[in-house]
Specification:
mainly alpha; 2 helices; 0% strand; rod-shaped
Length: 72
């Protein structure tokens, strides 16, 4: 036969509350505001850069839709 403990060990876990950290709403809000302010500038820069790269003909291939006629 097993000896029983003097105190109920199973009840010990029920008494201890696990500390939960609150959600950092201020940090999440600040990040959302920062992204919403920066997004239009990033989009405009991306569009401008892709347009410049298409016009610069970086890889040396002539495109027919660039406004030039076919060399043939």
């Amino acid at each position: 036969m097993r000896a029983r403990p003097k105190y109920n060990v199973n009840e010990y876990g029920k008494d201890i509350k696990i500390k939960q950290d609150p959600i950092p709403w201020k940090a999440i809000g600040l990040a959302v505001i920062a992204f919403s302010v920066a997004a239009p500038f990033a989009w405009r820069t991306y569009k401008r850069t892709t347009k410049e790269m298409a016009e610069a003909n970086v890889f040396g291939v002539q495109r027919a839709d660039a406004g030039e006629a076919d060399p043939e």
